[in-house]
Every structure is written in C-alpha cells, then in structure tokens.
Design brief:
Layout lengths: L3 H4 L6 H30 L4 H28 L2 H19 L5 H12 L3 H8 L7 H27 L3 H19 L15 H14 L4 H14 L3 H7 L5 H29 L2 H18 L7 H25 L7 H30 L1 H20 L18
Amino acid sequence: MKSTQTKSLFAPNVALLAAILYLVEFARGAALISFIPIYGKDALGLELDVIGIAIAAHSFTDTVVKLAIGYLMQHLSVRTLVSGALLVSLTGMLLIGFASVPWMFVFASALFGIGISPIWIVCLTKVRANRRATQMGVLYTIWLVGLGSGPAVTNFTLEFSETLTFWVMAAVSEAAWLLSLFIPKASHAEVDYVPFRRQLVLLGERLREMNLLLPGMVLQTLAAGMLIPILPSFAEDSLGLSPSQYSLLLLIGGGCTAVGLIPMGRLSDSLGKKWFLVTGFCLFGTALCALTAITAVGLPFAWAFLLGVAYAAVLPAWNALLAAYVPPGQQGLGWGVFSTVEGVGGLLGPGIGGVLAASFGEPFVVRLAGIVFIVISLFYLLFPFRMFRGEGTAGDAAR
C-alpha cells in the first residue's frame, strides 16, 4: 500500500511513465553496456574504435532529440511523442541484431538512440520545486535499477546464447512501446506556451548565470562515456571476470546507488549540495583508478560498492542544482538544453574511449576517466556555490 507521502511525491499518472522509463533504461543498459560491445567484438569482430563510434552515434541521435524536445512537447501529446519515439527505437533495436556490416551496426545504434530521451524528459517535468533532490532521487532510482538490471540480465544470457539475449532486449523494447499506447490521449507535459525565440533568450540568460557549471556538465559525461565501450572487455581481460561475475559487479555498484539515491537526495535537500558533489566525484575517481591496480580476486567488488555509494551522492545533488535553472513552465526546453550540453560529453566520450583503448589499452582509459573525475571534484571544491540559484539559503550553515 502506498503511503500518502509517496502518492503526493509526484503529479498523478506517473506510475505508468515510471514503468516505461524502467523498461527503456533496461533495454538501453543491456544494449550499450553489454550487447553492443560484446556482440560487436565477439560476433562481428569489430575493433573497439568502431564499437565506440556506434555508441557515439547512439549518443548523437539522443542529443539531437533532447535539443528539439521542448518544441516537440509543446506541439505533441505525451502519448504521441513517447510512443512514436519508442517505435523508432524498437526498429533500431531489431536492426542491431541483424547488422552484418559495421555501417549498419552504427546506423542501427543511432536509430535506437532516438527513442530514449522523451520519456526521461517527460518524467523530469513532473519534478516539483520544493522537493527537487528527493524527487530526483526517486527518478534516478528507477533509472538506475533499469540501467543496471539490463546488463546484469543480459550478461547471464550471453553466456548461453547471443540470440536469446537479443530477443530479450527486443521484447523489453516492445513492451515499453506497448505500454506507451496506454498513456492518456489528452496527456500533455506540464509546460506553458512561450514563443520559441523567447524561450531561447530565457535559456541563454540561465546558461550565462550558470556558465561556471558548464565545464563540469561536459567533463563528467565525457569521462563516463569513455568507459562505456570498454567496460566488458576491461572486466574480462584486466580484472579476469566472467560475464556472470561482471553482472555481479554491476549489480553491486548499481544496487548501492539505487538504495542510496533517495536518502542522499533528502540529505542534500537539507544540507546543501557542495560536499555531496566534492566527495562523490573524488571517491568515484579514486575507485576507478584503484580498479586498474587490482591484484586480489575480491577487490573489484569492494570498489564497485564504493563506486555505487559515490554515484548515489552525486546524482541527486547535481540534478537538483540543474533543476534550479530550468525556467518555470519551460521544463521541456530547459531539461532538453541542459541534457544536450551534458550530451556533448556523452557524444564525444565513447569515440575517444574506443580510440584510446585501441591504442593504449582499456586500463589506460579507466585510469584517465578516474583522473578526470578527481579533477572535477577539485573544481567543485573551489566552486562558488553561494553565487548560484538555490544554494544561498538551506545548507549554508553546513558549508
């Protein structure tokens, strides 16, 4: 039975959107973290740089949709937007399994990326200003559980059959699309109409206000993106993990993050966001660097636990900080633009990670990503948070 507090946490009709979000992220996690890197390398014999380009193509189309999402949300119902995007994504997923040459593999991955963003942005428009970090924690718990359970399941099935794994992902993608058809026809995102040029002016003003945040927005997704195409091969070749052990590693890290998101969100609402960002990014970077020097069998799982805790500290605080800069009534455009800025790093990261791994090896890329996260931590240590919206009141005493 849901409590009154849980019922009032978001606007009505969010349960269906949350279920769709979970399935979409399950399919994306399964594809990007497991199937595309493993299937591309083992079944198609593709090099890591080609796999990185395929994931970058996914990020590119995802970013393009984010940039246009504000306009689309003003002119289309939620059901039309979400179901249409998911149908395109399902088509891309089906093509991935039948890609026989590299260009088709890259194209299918790009097509798959088109349907990912709309459901996420729609959910973000339901966030209420007075409970940003807490609600962000709930959304990110759903996102993380989906993103983590996808590769965890498919890594187990990959040990038996790549064909079975593909059809599991296809079935989940189809289920997400079918559920989207049950979104009420009259459902619209909670955004007010503002002429597009005026919206761009307002968003430009907000971006100028938060210009010191922009480097961090790009660098953190760049570092994370570098890891995506090389994680399975790093786990196998450098850590000596089997696919099922890699799944366990992901479950530990993702589970710790999912459990920690809501309490960390509440704490950052009360105490302020600075030290959650500083500590979280520093621990995350340290754990990544430590993974490249593993000598004992059990150590990767211990560091995965620390990675999960660190990620739980960062996510609600970071996204609540961004939420303060989304203009009222312009959630679609606001989150679309901010997600696009972050997407620049996600677009460049996989390609860079794949190319560097092909030249210098996977441990080099993991270590470099860890160093980037530590640098980001130092940046936020010196960052003037009191200058920024929503950080000059609650939590000042704690800082």
